[in-house]
Design goal:
By secondary structure, this protein is an all-alpha fold. The chain is 76% helix and 0% strand. The mean pLDDT is 87.
Length: 320
């Protein structure tokens, strides 16, 4: 039964991989188009990992860009010293692990807070991380690190993006994942049923930080250049916008929103004078007419199965 449930996801991932690979092989996807695809993949990792914290566990975090910066700088420093594929993989692993460790250290005290207080605490944490990188000699301060080795291609991007989606989906379908969702629904009721809410909040927070670190490592391994200002408050807001637009509590919604917003942003780049005005107006319109996001708290698979069941019932009624 579980294998049948995974078939749509496996088929979608396989089709996506083959389609992009074929478009690259035929030259339809050029360097600029592939940069857009890389950005979409990174945003998918960031949005789905933040959705785990904010959408599924109900903890309002504004510090995701800080964890991304930890992954980016850690990977950059390692690949500068060891510009090889094993060095790149070590950089990704070290960056993600460092981000997760910081996530645990930050999460233990701050996740005792709730609502706006938690958002302010995580925002302050992200700013502290940015200022630290801004003043460290090893990170070259405000000038940042440049001429970084490029390792990310379609194979690596797909592997890490698809891996993030699959791992998060399996986690949410597991017992700890259900415990995280129970914290979102009613923390007091979850505690009364014996759920260690602090443990599961920190678990979700550290997992979100881990995958944000992966996204940062991929960013630094493709775009050659990083600096602290790339990971400021606005970056955290951009990630949160994707989560809210896709639907709080929907992984597939975050994927769709990441693709949609990047395509809109790319299309609006032809109108630099009014780009941000149009972009903001579109977001306002979407939130007015669809405040719960594109998919709300449901997944694409659930929507498709409901539609198919309705079609099946109608067919049986017509036969009768």
């Amino acid at each position: 039964m579980k294998k049948r449930k995974n078939l749509p996801l496996i088929a979608t991932l396989a089709f996506t991989y083959v389609a992009v690979w074929a478009l690259q092989a035929t030259g339809i996807v050029n360097d600029y188009s592939f940069a857009v695809i890389v950005t979409i993949g990174i945003n998918i990792i960031l949005a789905t990992s933040l959705n785990l914290v904010t959408g599924f566990t109900g903890q309002f975090s504004l510090g995701h860009a800080g964890f991304m910066s930890i992954g980016a700088y850690t990977c950059a420093l390692i690949t500068q010293k060891n510009p090889t594929v094993p060095g790149f993989l070590l950089g990704v692993a070290a960056g993600a692990t460092a981000a997760a460790v910081v996530g645990v250290l930050v999460g233990l005290p701050t996740l005792r807070l709730r609502g706006d207080y938690l958002a302010i605490a995580t925002l302050g944490m992200a700013e502290i991380i940015r200022v630290v990188f801004l003043n460290l000699e090893i990170t070259n301060g405000a000038a940042g690190l440049s001429f970084l080795p490029q390792f990310v291609n379609w194979n690596w991007l797909f592997l890490f993006t698809a891996g993030t989606i699959v791992l998060l989906r399996n986690f949410l379908n597991s017992s700890p994942g259900r415990a995280c969702i129970s914290v979102r629904e009613d923390e007091i009721a979850a505690e009364s049923m014996g759920v260690n809410t602090t443990k599961y909040k920190v678990t979700a927070f550290s997992m979100g930080a881990f995958f944000a670190g992966v996204a940062g490592a991929l960013y630094t391994s493709y775009f050659f250049f990083i600096k602290p200002d790339l990971f400021n408050f606005n970056k955290s807001i951009d990630i949160l916008v994707i989560v809210v637009l896709g639907g709080m509590g929907s992984l597939s919604g975050s994927v769709i929103a990441a693709v949609l917003l990047q395509l809109i942003s790319t299309w609006l780049s032809a109108f630099p004078e009014i780009r941000m005005v149009l972009y903001s107006a579109m977001l306002v319109a979407i939130m007015l007419f669809r405040p719960q996001g594109l998919l709300g708290s449901t997944e694409v698979s659930a929507v498709i199965s409901r539609r198919l069941s309705k079609i099946g019932r109608r067919a049986k009624e017509e036969e009768v």
